[in-house]
Amino acid sequence: NVGGNHIIEVSMSDASNGVAVGFDATIVFTSDGGDTWTAATTTNVGASAMRGVSMIDASNGVAVGDLGQIVYTTNGGVDWTAATTTNVGGTLMRGVSMSDASNGVAVGSDGTIVYTSDGGDTWTIPTTTNVGTTSMNGVSMSDASNGVAVGSDGTIVYTSDGGDTWTAATTTNVGTTHLREVSMSDASNGVAVGDSGTIVFTA
Length: 203
Known about the structure:
- This protein is an all-beta fold.
- A hairpin with a 5-residue loop joins strand 9 and strand 10 (about 105-110).
- Helices cover about 0% and strands about 40% of the residues.
- The strands form 5 sheets. The protein has a 4-stranded antiparallel sheet, with no helix packed on it. The chain has a 4-stranded antiparallel sheet with strand order 5-6-7-8, with no helix packed on it. A 4-stranded antiparallel sheet has the order 12-13-14-15, with no helix packed on it.
- It contains no helices and 18 strands.
- The protein starts with 6 loop residues before the first strand and ends with a strand.
């Protein structure tokens, strides 16, 4: 059910259930561990490429993509509803991380970071980001308060208040390398990866 489209991101909430997204508005879901995939009935994203998805459980999740697309599901990826308020305009959104069914953060180009506390329907601009207009590529929220976001030019910032304020990492050891993704296992431990074989960890 994806044709020849590029699949960019996948999120499994458990051993059976998950969602994958990609080019040409591709959103597909599985309930058998990935053996069979079904196209979403309603996507509400037009023809936009979808670049990030985060399923927090078998029912709830958020997907993001080009042209400021932010959509959420409450039925496992079958149907997707467009966020009422995104505060991102037409920004290319690259990543999203939901810590629970209510709270999460999404990131994108031009220094875009927004957070939600209502499951993805409304998104708020942080008070402080400390990233300027740097393209943000990945984010990982370990819980409703704590998380890390990474981006171009070696950018690493972290939050401890659910995404409202972000602080630049003191020591990154990546120089100006473009960072692509980050995964935090808890509030203290995680790994970030990027161009030229870059892998760094925090503990």
